[in-house]
DNA sequence: AAGAACGCATGACAACTGTCACGGGCGAGT
DNA sequence: ACTCGCCCGTGACAGTTGTCATGCGTTCTT
C-alpha cells in the first residue's frame, strides 16, 4: 500500500491556510495534495473527480460544515478516510465528527510536524484523536438539549428577543420562553446569553 | 537591498497554521523564516534575537494581541516592518493595527499565492491593505464607544448580569445600566447581546 | 471663564425575561 | 393500555433590563 503517494483532499474556507497546509504537506515525499476546496459542498464533487485517499476537512466552512461533509463523503465515496482539522476543540464537534464517520480529529494548535503522521495513520486505517480533547468529550458528554431547545438557542445567538425568536420559529412567546428556560437550566446557566455561550462552547449548536 | 533573503518572524497561536505558513513561505527562495512564536509577548524577544526584516502577526493571540505586539515591536525594534495576517477582517482591527504602526493587513482568506508578494511589498516599504476591508473600515469608522462603555460591554460579553458587571468594575448597577444603554444606542442595537455582537464584529472590543 | 464630553450616581417607569404550575397532544417503548 | 419524554400553549409572578430625567464632579478645549 505504500509504493504510491497518499492522495489528499484539503477543505478549509481560509484560502491562505489551505494553501499553507498544502505547502506543508507537499514537503512530505509520500503525500500529494490532489485537490483543494473552500466550501463544504465542494468536497464530494472534488472527491469524485480526484479520488483522494484521505480528506482533511475543517469544521467551520460555508455551504456545508465539515461534519455534514464527512457524512456526505462517507456515504458517496466510502473509500476516502476523513481527518478533521479544526480550530475549535469543541467536545461536541469531536463526538459528532466521529459519529459521522471521521477517522481522526486534530486541533489546529497541534505541532505542524505531527500533521503528516496523523495523515499517515488515518490512511493506515487507524484512528487519530487528540487525547486531551477526548477526555473533555467524555466529561462534557452528549448534548442534553432537545431538538427544539437547540433550535431556539441557535435563534437566540444573535441577540434576538423572545418575540423575534417566536416569530422566526412560528411559536408562541411563552413556548419560546419555556424552551429557553429549560435550556438555561440544562446548561447550568443563569441567563440566555450564558446558555448560548456554554452550549456553543461545547459544540451543541 | 535584495541580494539577501528577507528574514521573517511568524507569530500565530495555532501551531499548525504557523508551521504551514512557514512551509508556504519557505518555498520562496527570497524568503527565510528565522523565528516562530505562539504568543504575543514572545514577539519582541524573538525579534531582538533573530533580527527579522518583516514580522507576520496574527491579531488573536494569547498573552498580548497582535495589535499590542505591533506597537511594542515598533517601539523597541523600529526597523522591523509588520504585516498583520488575521482571520477576522474586523474594520476596527485594521484601523488600530495601522495606528499601531503596521505596514500591511491581510485576511486569511486571501489566496496563498499573494502572501509572498505582500511580504515583499511590505519589506520594500509599501503598504498592503485588503481593498474590500479598507472601504469597510471607512464606513464603519472608529469606535463611537467611550472607554467605560467599552469596558462595560467587554464585561458583558460572557453573559454577566448587570449586578455581576457592577461588582467586577466597582460601579453602581444604575451606572452600568446607563453605560450599557448608551452603548446599545450607539451600536444601533436594541439589546445588550446585540450590542456586544456588533461592537465585537467591528473590532471595537 | 464657559461649554462640552465624560464618568458616576439616583430614582422611577415600562418592557422584557426567567420561572413555575398547569394543561393538552403526539410518538416510542414497556 | 400505559408511561415517558418531548412539543406546544396559557397565565401569572418576580426579577432583570433598558430608558429617561436629573444631578454633581472632573477634565479638556475654546
What does this structure look like?
The structure is a homodimer of 205-residue chains. By secondary structure, the first copy, chain A, is α/β, with parallel strands linked by helices. The first copy, chain A, contains ten helices and six strands. The first copy, chain A, has helices spanning 15-26, 43-50, 66-76, 91-99, 112-123, 131-140, 147-156, 162-169, 173-187, 192-201; strands at residues 6-11, 31-37, 54-57, 81-86, 104-107, 128-129. In chain A, strands 2-1-3-4-5-6 form a six-stranded parallel beta sheet, sandwiched between helices. Chain A starts with 5 loop residues before the first strand and ends with a helix. Chain A binds a DNA duplex (30 and 30 nucleotides) through helix 9.
Amino acid at each position: 500500500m505504500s509504493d504510491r503517494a497518499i492522495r489528499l483532499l484539503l477543505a478549509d474556507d481560509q484560502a491562505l491556510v489551505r494553501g499553507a497546509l498544502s505547502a506543508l504537506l507537499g514537503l512530505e515525499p509520500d503525500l500529494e495534495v490532489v485537490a483543494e476546496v473552500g466550501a463544504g459542498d465542494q468536497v464530494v464533487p472534488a472527491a469524485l473527480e480526484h479520488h483522494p485517499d484521505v480528506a482533511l476537512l475543517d469544521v467551520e466552512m460555508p455551504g456545508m460544515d465539515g461534519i455534514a461533509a464527512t457524512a456526505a463523503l462517507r456515504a458517496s465515496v466510502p473509500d476516502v478516510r476523513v481527518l478533521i482539522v479544526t480550530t475549535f476543540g469543541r467536545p461536541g464537534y469531536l463526538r459528532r465528527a466521529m459519529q459521522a464517520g471521521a477517522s481522526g480529529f486534530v486541533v489546529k494548535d497541534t505541532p505542524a510536524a505531527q500533521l503528516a503522521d496523523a495523515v499517515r495513520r488515518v490512511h493506515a486505517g487507524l484512528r487519530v484523536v487528540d487525547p486531551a480533547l477526548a477526555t473533555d468529550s467524555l466529561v462534557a458528554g452528549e448534548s442534553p438539549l432537545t431538538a427544539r431547545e437547540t433550535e431556539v438557542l441557535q435563534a437566540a445567538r444573535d441577540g434576538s428577543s423572545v418575540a423575534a425568536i417566536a416569530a422566526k420559529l412560528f411559536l408562541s412567546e411563552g413556548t419560546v420562553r419555556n424552551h429557553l428556560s429549560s435550556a438555561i437550566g440544562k446548561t447550568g446557566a443563569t441567563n440566555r446569553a450564558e446558555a448560548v455561550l456554554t452550549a456553543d462552547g461545547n459544540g451543541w449548536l
